Automatic annotation (TrEMBL):
It holds the Pfam family Aldedh. Belongs to the aldehyde dehydrogenase family. IolA subfamily. HAMAP family: IolA. It comes from Oceanobacillus oncorhynchi. The active site is at C282 (nucleophile). The lineage of its organism: Bacteria, Bacillati, Bacillota, Bacilli, Bacillales. This is Malonate-semialdehyde dehydrogenase. The gene is iolA_1. NAD(+) binds at A148, F150, K174, E177, K178, T249, E380.
Length: 485
């Protein structure tokens, strides 16, 4: 019997008032792991009430004490690393080694947030006029809502709640209904670390909970990570309701391989970025532009490397490529492969040949001769499908990539410093990689997508997250010099 999941409200596991549940699958086996409640507006209201009451007390707890809870949480997450990774693999499908990487990135955010005493410091100026000084204090914003995608069940929520709570906010998480199991474990460990009841809540579900976060006047800030259409909706509706919103959305990341690059390194990195996590990464390499003179050699290397990829259940030894998340995602991917052929791209490697009916598998797929009028170039496919484009030089590669509506990450493989500088100055993307395939910045830098990959002003992570989860109060004070006569 699979487990009926509960919501975490006011520090207790409570059954949702809904009668609607969805199955949560292991995408590698189609086994039903749990049932997730599609919670009601009443469930959300209970969470908001508890979060607001908790925040009134939490904001007065010293920042050093709050940080100590995060240090303890960090240790607990380290202790449970393997268990957490296994849970991620079961509900998401990525390999255990990738899941362990994800857990590590999540812990890194907790570690960064534990620096809250320093990060939350304001600034001051002793003399802004004669006998007048100014001090800028930071305060939490109040109750914060977080809406997460399925592809990083641990890392993405960790971009949000550790910093939000370290800074004195309370936080309500709506995990993806496709991957809600890991989130429950994150809450249990927070409880074990000593977080007061109500400071962190989970309300499982879909649209109703999202709309609750966007509409409820008590929720002051919203962090969203997910697809572009939903991110746009979240940004517009949340802003209309006068909230702070940061929405990190879709991507179509381009990598460029120049003739002077180390082609073996480029192959290894591009393969890992294109097919790791089954291409279900906002930093996945979706398109590789390669200089004409090395294109045949590079494509042959890509093909050979992808022929050696082991596909299967991410829990099994040596598996690199797991399934996509659901049958719907698999059918969508097969549709894109059909469309690519129909629109005239050359199929270099056909992942359809390796369908494995145990789960929702699609093998590594590579197209050559992709152009900008093709659907496979325009759309975010979010699957193990890589498009190759042959270009004359770096200038043409940059112009090609800059036509995309998305601008999350971009990578360059070269040994030329001049090319690196040209690329950095001219490419439209918020996160760049030089001779590496997945340029996801560490927790202390912002996760800084551009164009349709991000809506808002302050990004997730880094100092941006401190600004996003705090508001400022500037005190200007006159202290006339005492008369000592
Ligand atoms: P999604 O947009 O379908 O879902 C994200 C969240 O929004 C989920 O919690 C879901 O329940 C909710 N949601 C979905 N449809 C909704 C609707 N109509 N109304 C209200 N809420 C809705 O995204 P996903 O499929 O879970 O995740 C994949 C997407 O996330 C990809 O586009 C990927 O690029 C993006 N992503 C972006 C980043 C980034 O940093 N830019 C990071 C990870 C994932």
């Amino acid at each position: 019997m699979s487990k009926k999941l509960k919501n975490f409200i006011n520090g207790e596991w409570v059954e949702s008032k809904t009668d609607k549940y969805e199955d949560v699958y292991n995408p590698a086996t189609k086994e039903v792991l749990a049932q997730v409640p599609i919670s009601t507006p009443e469930d959300f209201e209970d969470a908001v009430q508890a979060a607001q009451a908790a925040q009134e007390k939490w904001k007065k707890v010293s920042v050093a004490k709050r940080a100590r809870i995060l240090f303890k949480y960090q240790n607990l997450l380290e202790e449970h690393k393997e268990e957490l990774a296994k849970l991620i693999t079961q509900e998401n499908g990525k390999s255990v080694s990738e899941a362990l990487g994800e857990v590590g990135r999540g812990i890194e955010n907790v570690e960064f947030a534990a620096g809250a005493p320093t990060l939350m410091m304001g600034d001051s100026l002793a003399t802004i006029a004669t006998d007048v000084e100014a001090t800028n204090y930071r305060y939490p914003v109040g109750v914060v809502g977080g809406i997460a995608p399925f592809n990083f069940p641990m890392m993405v929520p960790c971009w949000m709640f550790p910093m939000a709570i370290a800074l004195g906010n309370s936080f309500i998480l709506k995990p993806s209904e496709k991957t809600p199991i890991l989130a429950a474990r994150l809450a249990e460990l927070l409880d074990e670390a000593g977080l007061p009841k109500g400071v962190f809540s989970i309300v499982n579900g879909a649209h109703d909970v999202v709309n609750g976060i966007l509409d409820h006047p008590t929720v002051k800030a919203v962090s969203f990570v997910g697809s572009k259409p939903v991110g746009e909706y979240v940004y517009k509706r949340g802003s209309e309701n006068l909230k702070r919103v940061q929405a990190l959305t879709g991507a179509k990341n381009h990598s460029t391989v120049l003739a002077d690059a180390d082609l073996d390194l480029a192959t290894k990195e591009v393969i890992s970025a294109a097919f790791g996590s089954a291409g279900e990464r906002c930093m996945a390499c979706a398109v590789v532009t390669v200089e004409d003179s090395v294109a045949d050699e590079f494509i042959a290397k890509l093909k050979e490397a992808s022929d050696n990829i082991k596909m299967g259940n991410g829990l099994d030894e040596g598996v690199f490529l797991g399934p996509v998340i659901r049958d719907e995602a698999k059918q969508r991917t097969l549709g894109y492969i059909e469309k690519g052929i129909e629109e005239g791209a050359t199929l270099v490697r056909d992942g359809r040949n390796e369908q494995n009916e145990d789960g929702y598998f699609v093998g590594p797929t590579i197209f050559d001769g992709v152009s900008q009028d093709m659907t496979i170039w325009k759309d975010e496919i979010f699957a193990p499908v890589l498009s190759v484009v042959r270009v004359k030089n770096l200038k043409e590669a940059v112009e090609f990539a800059n036509q995309s509506e998305f601008a999350n990450g971009a990578c360059l493989f070269t040994t030329s410093a001049l090319s690196v500088r040209y690329f950095r100055e001219n490419i439209d993307a918020g996160m760049l990689g030089i001779n590496l395939g997945v340029p996801a910045p560490m927790a202390f830098f912002p996760f800084s997508g551009w164009k349709s990959s991000f809506y808002g002003t302050l990004h997730a992570n880094g100092k941006d997250s401190v600004d996003f989860y705090t508001r400022k109060k500037v005190v200007t004070a006159r202290y006339p010099e005492p008369d000592f006569s």
